[in-house]
Description:
Blueprint: E1 2-6, H1 15-28, E2 31-36, H2 38-47, E3 56-60, H3 74-77, H4 82-91, E4 97-100, H5 104-115, E5 125-126, E6 129-132, E7 135-140, H6 150-166, E8 174-178, H7 189-203, E9 208-213, E10 225-227, H8 230-255, H9 259-267, H10 269-278, H11 281-284, E11 286-290, E12 296-299, H12 305-321, H13 323-330
Parallel strand pairs: 1-2, 1-4, 2-3, 4-12, 7-10, 8-9, 8-10
Antiparallel strand pairs: 5-11, 6-7, 11-12
Amino acid sequence: MRIIVDAMGGDHAPESAVWGGALAAKEFGEEVVLVGRPEPIAEILKAKGMTEQPGLHIVPASDLVDMHDDPATVLRRKPDSSMAVAFKLLKSGEGDALVSAGNTGALLTGATLFGGRIKGIRRGALAPVMPCAGGQVMLCDAGANTECTAEMLLQFAFLGSLYAEKISGVHNPRVGLVNNGTEDTKGDPLRREAYALLKKAGDAGRLNFVGNVEGSMVPLGACDIAVCDGYSGNVMLKTIEGVAKFMAGQIKGVFTRNLATKMGYLACKKGMDEFRGLFDQDRVGGAPFLGIAKPVIKAHGSSGEIAVMNAVRQAIAYTKSGMIDAVRENIAYMTVSESEG
């Protein structure tokens, strides 16, 4: 198996992407292709003592996509950027999956144009996981599509559910529709129409639909898949991340107030370390673009080498899971006829 890594994408590239890719090749025993400027890539590998790492390859690309580039046009305007070259390798079959910590919009554009959507899927969805009471919850979508149809939300539910089963090993994952109330009459027309489609799929035994969930219920473990449009999903994700950082800062302030509280911190340091670990992005690796015909993993822009290594691990698991075939097998249940629409 070959995993393509955009070596120039991300806030800490190329160091984090190159070192993370090299660690992944060593740790997982699969081939890793580093795409980017050969000279700095070679220098980093030499500094890390990994120039002779088996299964590690370099494909040159002279340019890069930065966070200020227009996502819709940058891959066409910068055909020799590391991201564009990486997608060309993926499209030609010279790699099985792609990992990048670069520009999210450009990555989605590339995934759609070069990877292609699975036939019948209306839009690819960005699906990160975050900690919740009792485990993890996947947000689907969390930023790829700010405007959605009810059919798209139905598809996000199936995509997230299949991913949770195939990759995360969750049996019969609970699907909730993020709404401003739990009653089936709540929400705008989009949410009410989506509720009807999801309930129908649930009644038919296609999904484990648990109904509407309010935003406050998502971190409390009300569902395994939180279905939402990309706008509200992204707002929810960023809000929860911000609250987590705020709470961590406040707790640290309490423990560092005086000598007595510092002694108290030492007594519960193990628990505090476990709490911080819940929000450690490096452990997760990245978020998949679901609905795309080839695995594409979006690592966080601030990813370090461990996060990139785990994003490669995630890409390997995705490729081996049979997820994409499972979507194709279930596509008939994920589309809405004209009479239903």
